[in-house]
Request: fold
Amino acid sequence: MQQIPHSLPYNKALDGIRGVAIILVVLFHIWPKYFSFGFVGVDIFFVLSGYLITKIIVTKSERGEFSLSEFYRNRIRRIFPALIIVLSATVIVGYLFLFPEEFKALGKHIKSSALFYQNFRLIDEAGYWDESGQLKPLLHFWSLSIEEQFYILWPFLIILIVRLKALYILPLIVFSLIYLSFTLNSDVNVFFHSLTRFWELSVGATLVWLERSSSLQLLVDKIRYVIWLFFLLAVAFFYQENSYDLLTSFLLVLAVGLLILSLQTRDNVLLSNNLIVFVGLISYPLYLWHYPIISYAHILGVSVIENGVWILITSIFLSYLTYRYVEVYARKQTDIKVIAGFFAAVVVLAGIGGVIKNQDGLPDRPHLASIKEAQLQFIREPAINDKCEAISRKLLDSPRTFDYCKSTSELITDNYVAIIGDSHAHVLYPGFSEELKKKGYDTVLLANSGCASLLGGGRGRNESDVEKCEAKITQIYSVVSAMPNLTKVLLVTRGPKYMYEKGFGEIDKTGANKYSAYFSGNEGYKPEVIYTKSMDASLGYLVEHGKEVYVFLENPELGFSPKSCINRPFGLVANPCVVSLEEYKQRMSAYRSDIMTIVEKYGNAHILDAESLLCDDKQCYAKMNGKILYADDDHFSVEGSRYIASKMINKLVVPNE
Reply:
């Protein structure tokens, strides 16, 4: 491997830490079930980056050699070339194979990644562990955005500290950032937000001050094996974890900091191993390359788990080529015109992303003509309409907070069927509202996203989220009970996800939402018990208030993107678009049994079961008669909604009513 000139004396073990960090991240993204703790590799990167950048600034400043212009030129030489290559490749593949809606979303992410605010873009979109995150090829650019935001202002602060000869105030800054992160815990997205991540980089910066203490270095050297044990335990704390916890992350960051300090006094055989150092040297391009490859595999219907070894090999190969023939070349460039060219290329890529977004994903690409109609099947309907808003204003004492609100009429005196629940209720609304209209009924949709409309079943990423969810549920039941001619309720929720708090299949990583009992430290926390109790309470409430209730049993989950059921351009073959009946039964058996038992308690409650409509004796289908029945791995498409409603309407509304 050809070495790149360094601003500091070279320490192989630090590249070894990079190697360990990127290995953790890549293994997590390919095999999340077995390496569920691997996402902590990003935290390791943050601490190491904060340490190295601050040490460069401090060392050069104290010698009177530091230049801001040189610092930012070096950042451009380091970051931009590989970024340009990967973003360009990602947008080219997207142009060739993505449907317009997918390409439009990619255009937004190209722009926010190139301009380093991808973390803020993602705050308003999917969570890191959400299934839709697998279908975002640039999801991982959130961490690079945070680092670059940190480097915009950090040099000015360090220069000021050095000039004041007050390096000792670095710990104060770090503790202030840690305190800020904890105070913001319930108010911002703690995983993606810069203010809840800067402290990790600043901990790395504090090491520059701490390593100057010879007595501390001597102590760290004596306990180096204890530090390694602490580090391994800190990583292990994240096993089977599916959310970002600040306290646990603090322990990990502390362990990484101590590990870095221990590497300043003697060589480390493990971290100086040539193979680990090699991975560390290519860690930046490997971080950039691996996730678009994984994401496009999911999008195109290729099993990431089964083909994980090939994905790993391909990622390493492309990363080596990028390092050897792009990074090494770029880092040697001193001509300001070359640096300006890198900067201009990134700006152009941001502009291209903006054009793709503004042009709705370039729907008229010639090679998409043959599948243009099929693409329309994946478009989700809006969550809200004016008629439902009018109803909510009439019946609620405060502004509506629940997420889905649609109605076929704004007159509360009409005969209604209510569809309540979560996003699964939302996707069933189009078909049932059409069929119910034919029977003389209006339909009102009252539902939430990721917060099933079940009394006592509030869920969230923290206690504040749970409280908001409970308030939304209360509003929904207020509307249902206040509508005089609403006699039937269709209750639709994704039960297995709430009972087991994990998704199904490669594409659906574990979600982070929990019930309130989890946050209160209940040692006997059992989500399946909470879900069934809240289902029981909800049915009891609705039946007591004179409603005839129909519980829609969860449809088979696919575990893959149904978009892979359509042949992509250039003859790329679609997958079979089926899921094994045995797999479906294993996932659903306990859930189905529990719900049926609860429903049997109530004379005015019934089951609507779509299993026979979607499955035969061997497998369940996501595609029938040329129509894609699913919009994603567990939600129905509009066509799927219409198919299910047409087959079930006479169970919900008998012909002579």
Summary: The chain is about 55% helix and 5% strand. The chain has two domains: 12-368, 379-557+581-615+641-652. Residues 12-368 form one domain.
